[in-house]
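Hello,

Our lab assistant flagged a job as stuck in the queue for most of the afternoon. It eventually completed. Since we weren't sure the result was trustworthy after the delay, we are filing this so someone can double-check. Below is the sequence as submitted and the structure that was eventually returned. Let us know if re-running is recommended.
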Amino acid sequence: MALADTFVRQVKHSGKTGGDKHTDGGGMYLLVKPGGKYWRMDYAHAGKRKTLALGIYPEVTLAKARQRREKARELLADNIDPGVAKREEKQAQADAAANTFEAVARVWLKKTEAKRAEVTQSRVTTLLEKDVFPFLGNLPISTIKPRDVLEKAVRKIEARGSIDTAHRAKQICGQIFRYAVAVGMAERDVTADLRGALATIPESHFAAITEPKQAGELMRAIFEYTGHPCTVAALKLTPLVFVRPGELRTAEWSEIDLENAEWRIPGSKMKMKVDHLVPLSRQALQLLLSVQPITGHGRYVFPSLRTGERPMSENTINAALRGMGYSKEVHTAHGFRAMARTIMDEVMGERVDLIEHQLAHAVKDPNGRAYNRTAHLPARREMMQRWANYLDKLRIGADVITLRTAKP
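-- returned structure --
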C-alpha cells in the first residue's frame, strides 16, 4: 500500500529497535527512527542486495523521494548501480566546487608565467583580481556559461568605457577555459560563443610628439619639472633610453653596469622574452649616478614612493606628464619610443636596423636569424650618445643642429 503525505507527516517512532519501516512500493520505504525520518530503497545489482539513501524528510518530500526512486530504477534498467552513480555524482560536485574559476585561473597564471614579461604578468593578474574574480571567481568553471562571462564580467568593463580592457578580459578568460579543457576541468571554451558580442575596439596609437621643435619644448618642460628626485630622474631618463614604461619602472640595480655604462634587461621582463642591452649615454649614466645614493641600497632603481619593496607605479610618468600639461592625447610615457623612432630615422638619418634593435623589436640578419642582444653594440652605443646629445641641443633651443648622415 502506497504512503500518503498525511501519514508521512504524522507518523511517530514506535520505540522499535532499528526503527519502523513503512513501504511505498518499488523497494522504497520510510524508515522512522528517534532522530528523524529517512527515505530508503532496497535493490539488487549484480546479484547483491543493497540499500540506497534517498534523503531525509521533510527536506525531501514524499513526491521528491518517489522521483529519486524512479531515477534509480531507470539506472538499474540500464544495468547501472544507482549507489555507485550517486557516489560519482557527489564526487563530481565536490570536484566542481573545488575547481572554481579563480582556483583554475591561479594555476594557469603560475604555469604560464614564464611566457610573459613580469610587467605583463602583473597586469593580467590585476585585471583578473579587479574585474573577473569578484563576479566569476567562486563559480565552478565547469558550470560557467557564455552569458555568465558576458553579463557578469566583460559587459561591466565595457559599460565604463574600457572597450580594450573588456576585449582583453574576454581573451584571458578564453585562455583559462582552454587550459581547463586541456586538464579535464571543463568541456569547452565558452568564450568562443561571444564573438561579436562586444563593441569594436577603437583604432588608436600611443600619443607621441614626433616633431623636433615640440620635442625641444617637451624636454625643457621635463627639466623644469619639480617633484620627488626619483620621479624627476625617471622622467629625464625615459627619453634617453626609450624602453617600454614597464621595463623602466621595474629596472633593478643588479641589471645596471655603471662601470661599462650598460643596462642589461633580462628576457623575463621583455615583451619578446629576449634579453635586451641598453647602452647608456653619458647623460643617462649621470642620471643613474645621481639617484644611486637615494635608492642604491635597495632592489629597484625607481622604487614605489610608498614602499621600496615594489617598483614605481605604472602611472607615475604619465601623471608627471599630465602635471606638465601634456594630455594623454598629446604624449604618453610610451610615446617616447615613437618620438625616438621617428626623429632618429627621419631627422637624424640613423640606421633603421640599429633603431629597431634598440627598440627591442624583432630584427633578423640576412640569413633570417634573430640577432642577439649584443649585436652591433659599438654602433648602437654611438647612436645612443648622438641621440642624447641631440636631445640636449633641442632642449637648449639650438637653431642649427649638425646631423649625422647614415651610410647606405
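-- support follow-up --
The delay was a queue issue, not a problem with the job. The result is valid. The beta strands are 20-25, 28-33, 36-45, 48-57, 256-257, 262-265, 276-279. DSSP finds 15 helices and seven strands in the chain.
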